[in-house]
Automatic annotation (TrEMBL):
InterPro entries: Plipid/glycerol_acylTrfase. It comes from the Eukaryota. GO terms for molecular function: acyltransferase activity. Pfam families: Acyltransferase. It comes from Baryphthengus martii (Rufous motmot). SUPFAM superfamilies: Glycerol-3-phosphate (1)-acyltransferase. PANTHER family: TRANSMEMBRANE PROTEIN 68. GO terms for cellular component: membrane. This is TMM68 protein. Residues 13-72 form the Phospholipid/glycerol acyltransferase domain. The lineage of its organism: Eukaryota, Metazoa, Chordata, Craniata, Vertebrata.
Length: 168
């Protein structure tokens, strides 16, 4: 799309590679990395199952840069926009050609709240697999604490009108 690269550059969006991510972290920048990527965005559902597959590059980047990983979770994120990713032929098509041609619907004005978990500190002797498992467990704990499962669009909309403060 015309102008899209300029927009991404203005917001500091990068698409890797790992060396560029490590360099940015060593300079003191923060990176937001979505290990599930497009696959998780398109094919996850209201059950909030983590779909990372064997992805562990984010963990290797953190190890190489000697930085902690800070897990984050946004409550109701899957209620704001839904996909028809549950249709098996669309998933199969995506896996073959890697084009995100899954219909979206929604844009619902649900209550979104982002929760920041406890940092997972850098450990010099940890493997990327072990760090990935720790990160996944930390993210799953945030989901279990802050998300009512299954997610529900109506409930997420009604949360906009709650006035009492929550202790979380």
């Amino acid at each position: 799309l015309t102008g899209f690269k300029i927009l991404l550059d203005a917001h500091g969006v990068m698409h890797g590679p790992k060396e560029e991510c490590v360099s940015a972290l060593k300079k003191g920048c923060l990176l937001a990395i979505a290990p599930g990527g497009v696959r998780e965005a398109l094919f996850s559902d209201e059950m909030y199952t983590i779909i990372w597959g064997n992805r562990k590059g984010f963990a290797q980047v953190a190890i190489d840069a000697k930085v902690p990983i800070i897990p984050m979770f946004t409550q109701n994120v899957r209620e704001g926009v839904r996909t028809l990713g549950g249709i098996k032929i669309l998933r199969s098509l995506y896996e073959r050609i890697r084009l995100p041609i899954v219909p979206l619907y929604g844009g619902f004005p649900v209550k979104l709240r982002t929760f920041i978990g406890e940092p997972i500190p850098y450990e010099p002797n940890i493997t990327a697999e072990e760090l990935t498992a720790k990160t996944k467990a930390a993210l799953q704990a945030l989901i279990e604490k802050h998300q009512k499962i299954p997610g529900n669009i109506f409930r997420a909309l009604m949360e906009r009108f709650q006035t009492q403060k929550k202790d979380d």
